[in-house]
Amino acid sequence: MNLASNLSGSTAISSVSIHHLPHESKFVLKPNIRGLAKRMIYRLINYQILDGFSDAEVYCIIDNTLELLKPAPAFIHMPAPVIIFGDTHGQFADLIRIIKRVDAPPKSRFLFLGDYCDRGRKSIEILILLFCYKLLYPKDVQILRGNHECSKMNRLYGFYEECRRTRGTQLWRKFQAVFNEMPLCCLVENRIITMHGGISPDIKGMETLYKLKKPKTHAECDTGVALDLMWSDPAAGADSCCSWQFNKMRNASWMFGTETVKEFCRLLNIDMIVRAHEMEIVHL
Ligand SMILES: [Mn+2]
């Protein structure tokens, strides 16, 4: 799991407020669902299980998250300071350990960079915890889409089996609908651009990102800017001096070099790119 990085403050703040996402201000959560989300967070943080909650209650959280995310654009904004999380991949105990070390929303903001499911054993718990936070604090929690939030991937790498084993395949299908509505890219305080994978040669300026549509089919996930935001990687070692090169490791998308990153930051007038997608073994 990539360790979260805490961005406290930023050097340049735009006078124009672009952080306001109207649908999130308008979203009203019914009191009974608010209560359910709070009870689930309590159970998940303290006991790390969802046992005792019915399938109907789990579906209720998923359905409400779907409705909240539907109006969200593919490119969103968030103010600093924000705590950014990389790949969680079903490693629920690690996520809880990090959350316990920091202030949770509404005392802080959380930005997740995708790949919640597959590999680890507790993807359902991770997703439901994130959805509960999102429902209770929609402006303080943003959940981007990773390349594993695609049925083609999570059918094969563990999530489907986890759903089938625990609550049934209908649960797996319900999650796919939410994945299709997750944004792909988030600009933090106008200075830091974040995504799961990386940048794209097809991003010609901020307007490319404003025009971006959320991919809803395999074909839409597998092309253009959407594919690159979820799949590309920075080049390492000797390759880092090259600009754009085919990403042989993934057999999809691109790898980009150091100069390309600098050019991209100049083009978009940002300070840095924060991304996930490459798991690292860290001993905390
Ligand atoms: Mn990934």
TrEMBL record:
List the InterPro entries: Calcineurin-like_PHP, Metallo-depent_PP-like, PP1_catalytic_subunit, Ser/Thr-sp_prot-phosphatase
Instruction: Name the UniProt key words of this record, in alphabetical order.
Output: Hydrolase
- Tell me which EC number(s) this protein carries: 3.1.3.16
Could you tell me the superkingdom of the organism this chain comes from?
Eukaryota
Reactions listed under catalytic activity: O-phospho-L-threonyl-[protein] + H2O = L-threonyl-[protein] + phosphate
Q: Which family does the similarity line name? A: Belongs to the PPP phosphatase family.
Q: Looking at the UniProt record for this protein, which Gene Ontology cellular component terms does it annotate, in alphabetical order?
A: cytoplasm; nucleus
Q: What is this protein called?
A: Serine/threonine-protein phosphatase
Example GO molecular function term? protein serine/threonine phosphatase activity
Q: Does the keyword Cytoplasm apply?
A: no
Entry's PANTHER family? SERINE/THREONINE PROTEIN PHOSPHATASE, SERINE_THREONINE-PROTEIN PHOSPHATASE-RELATED
Q: Which residues form the Serine/threonine specific protein phosphatases domain?
A: 144-149
